[in-house]
Design brief:
Keywords: Nucleus. By secondary structure, the chain is mainly α. It is 45% helix and 0% strand.
């Protein structure tokens, strides 16, 4: 009867370490560099010669695909930007009574949200920032939140694959989007913490 080592290595060659095999594979990888693998891109010339152009742009067609610009707004030039703060991050010292607490974080998030809202102007609502984060929970009253919580608990126990159908039946006044937004907020923030 053969021993276990002979079965694992029947050729009698020296055993190689698995890490050596991985390193060998990495050494054999070839990165395609050279004239065969490069694209020749001509220099950009900013001259638009309408005669040479095969396709003439129709302004109405172009604006249909590009849409209406939302941001930056026209009054952006009036805003002052403190360039010294860019890239520095937040101030390490927090003036709150208990830095790092839930209330501290909520306060700073609210401050930054208001700052962003003032900077973006109408784009804030156009980009649906008003329907993100904790603001989603404000669209649901306390009774609805409690009902949703119990529905989630019952769904966990029953191990149902979908919470969507029972939730839509339980909240007929809410749209599918309202439900999905709140469920996302609820699951990510309230379950994890």
């Amino acid at each position: 009867m053969q021993n276990a080592e002979e079965l694992l290595n029947p050729t009698g060659e020296e055993k190689s370490d698995w890490l050596d095999l991985i390193d060998d594979v990495r050494d054999k990888l070839v990165i395609p560099v050279g004239p065969r693998f490069q694209v020749d891109i001509p220099d950009w010339t900013n001259s638009r010669n309408e005669d040479k152009c095969k396709y003439k742009e129709d302004e109405s067609e172009t604006s249909k695909w590009l849409g209406t610009p939302v941001w930056p707004t026209d009054n952006l030039e009036n805003k002052e930007v403190n360039e010294e703060l860019i890239g520095k991050g937040r101030n390490e010292r927090c003036p709150c009574k208990s830095p790092g607490s839930v209330e501290c974080v909520k306060t700073h998030v609210k401050e930054e949200r208001m700052k962003l809202k003032s900077e973006l102007g109408t784009a804030f609502n156009a980009w649906n920032f008003d329907e993100m984060g904790e603001e989603v929970s404000n669209l649901w009253n306390a009774e609805e939140q409690k009902k949703f919580s119990s529905l989630v608990k019952m769904n966990r126990i029953s191990k149902s694959k979908s919470l969507l159908k029972p939730a839509l039946a339980s909240f007929p006044n809410k749209t599918r989007k309202n439900y999905c937004d709140f469920a996302h907020y609820f699951v990510l923030l309230l379950w994890l913490f």
